[in-house]
Amino acid sequence: MLSYRHAFHAGNFADVFKHVVLMQLIHALRRKDKPFCLLDTHAGAGRYDLESALACKNREYVDGIGRLWDQAGLGTELSEYLNLIRALNPDGRLRWYPGSPRIARALLRSGDRLVLTELHPGDHPRLKAEFAGDRQVAVHHADGHAVLKSFLPPPERRGLVFLDPAFELRGEFDRLVEAVRVIHRRWAGGIIAIWYPILDRTPSLRFQRELRELEIPAILCAELGLYPYDGPPGLHGCGMIVVNPPWRLDETLNRLLPELLRSLGAGERGQTRLEWLAPAP
Ligand SMILES: C[S@@+](CC[C@H](N)C(=O)[O-])C[C@H]1O[C@@H](n2cnc3c(N)ncnc32)[C@H](O)[C@@H]1O
What we know:
Blueprint: H1 13-29, E1 37-40, E2 47-49, H2 53-58, H3 65-68, H4 76-87, E3 96-98, H5 100-107, E4 113-118, H6 123-130, E5 137-141, H7 144-147, E6 159-163, H8 172-186, E7 191-198, H9 201-213, E8 219-225, E9 237-243, H10 249-263, E10 271-278
Parallel strand pairs: 1-4, 1-6, 4-5, 6-7
Antiparallel strand pairs: 2-3, 7-9, 8-9, 8-10
Helix pairs in contact: 1-5, 1-10, 8-9
Bound molecules: S-adenosylmethionine.
The site of S-adenosylmethionine has 21 residues, from strand 4 and helix 7.
C-alpha cells in the first residue's frame, strides 16, 4: 500500500528543517576534495509544484517555506537554503519547491554522485524525468530498504545515506533501526541521516532508545518542535538522527535550530532539542 504522496506536504516546516540539516551534511562532505556518494532511499518526486491541487489541499507550505520566503537578514545557513529555493523560482514568485534530490543535486561537485530510490509508481517517473540525462544521478524504482545493502559501501567510501520514509506502514521505526544496523555493518564510516515525525511522542523516544541499544558510537539527535507535544493530534515536530555527524555539526545546529524556530514564527510554543544519543569516540 503506497498512499502517501509527498506533494501534499512539500515545503512544510518539516521539509524546511529536513532540508536545512541535509544541506549542512552535504556542505561538510564538500570540505574535502575527495568525491562522495549520497544515497537517498526515499527520494520522492524531486520537485513539487506548490500550485498543484495536492499542494493546495492543505497549503502546508504556507507555515514552512512560506514563512521564510520574504524574510531578510537570515543567518548564513538559512540564507543559503533560501537562495537555493529562490534559484528554482527565478521570477520571484514561490511556486516550485525542491525535494531532497534536487537540493542534493544543487550541491554536488563534478565528481560526486547521487543515488536515488523511490517506490511509488506515480512519483518514480517524475523523479526519473527530473534527472534524465544527468550522469551524476542514478534513479531506481525500488524499495529503499530492500536494496540498501546492494549500494554499500559505495566505491567513493565517503558519503551519506539519507532515509526519509513516509511512515505510512506500521513498523517503520523498527525498519529504520535495522537499516542503521545494516548500514553500519557494511560501511562503518558512512554518515547516516534519518528524518522522523513527532506526532505522538512515545514512538520517537522508543526509536531513540533502540538506537542507543545498538551500541554504535556517534549518534546525534536534533529535533524541532513547532507545536506543543501534548497538543491536539497532528505533526507537532520532527527530528533528524545523524550517525557519524561531521565535525562541529552539533555546534552549527545548536545555533541554527533556535534561529529556524524563530524564522518559522513558532513564538513561545516551540522547542528544539540537540542531544548525543551515543558519544563520538
Ligand atoms: C517523505 S517522502 C520523501 C521526501 C523526499 N525525501 C524529500 O525530502 O523531498 C517519502 C517517499 O518515500 C516513498 N516510499 C515509500 N515507501 C518506500 C520504499 N519502501 N522505498 C522507497 N521509497 C518509498 C514515498 O512514495 C515517498 O515519495
